[in-house]
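stage 2 :: seqdesign
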C-alpha cells in the first residue's frame, strides 16, 4: 500500500515536471523570432541575418560579386554565411535549453 502511494506521488511529480518543461519550451519557442544572428563569408562580402526559426531576415552582397563570372563563388559564400548564422542560432538555442534544464534541477 505504501509503495503504491509513493508510486502515485512519483507519477504526480513527473506530471508536474512535464508541465513545467512544456511551459519552458513554449516560452523558448516564443523567443525564437527575436533571436537573431548573423553570418558572413568572403571577408564580409556576403552577410546574412537569420532568426531563431531559421528565417532569412536580410542578405547583403558586395556589388563586386554580382558579375556572372563570380556566380559559383557567390553561391558558395551565401551558403557559408547562412550555415555560420544557423550554427550560431543553434548554439543560442542549446544554451537556452541548458539554462532551462539547470533551472529545474
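stage 2 :: out
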Amino acid at each position: 500500500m505504501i509503495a503504491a502511494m509513493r508510486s502515485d506521488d512519483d507519477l504526480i511529480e513527473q506530471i508536474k515536471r512535464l508541465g513545467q518543461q512544456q511551459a519552458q519550451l513554449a516560452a523558448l519557442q516564443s523567443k525564437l523570432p527575436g533571436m537573431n544572428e548573423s553570418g558572413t563569408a568572403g571577408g564580409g562580402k556576403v552577410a546574412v541575418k537569420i532568426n531563431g526559426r531559421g528565417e532569412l531576415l536580410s542578405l547583403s552582397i558586395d556589388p563586386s560579386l554580382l558579375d556572372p563570372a563570380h556566380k559559383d563563388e557567390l553561391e558558395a559564400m551565401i551558403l557559408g554565411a547562412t550555415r555560420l548564422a544557423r550554427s550560431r542560432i543553434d548554439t543560442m538555442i542549446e544554451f537556452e535549453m541548458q539554462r532551462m534544464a539547470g533551472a529545474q534541477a
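stage 3 :: structure notes
- Residues 30 and 72 are 37 Å apart (CA to CA).
- The beta strands are 36-41, 46-51, 56-61.
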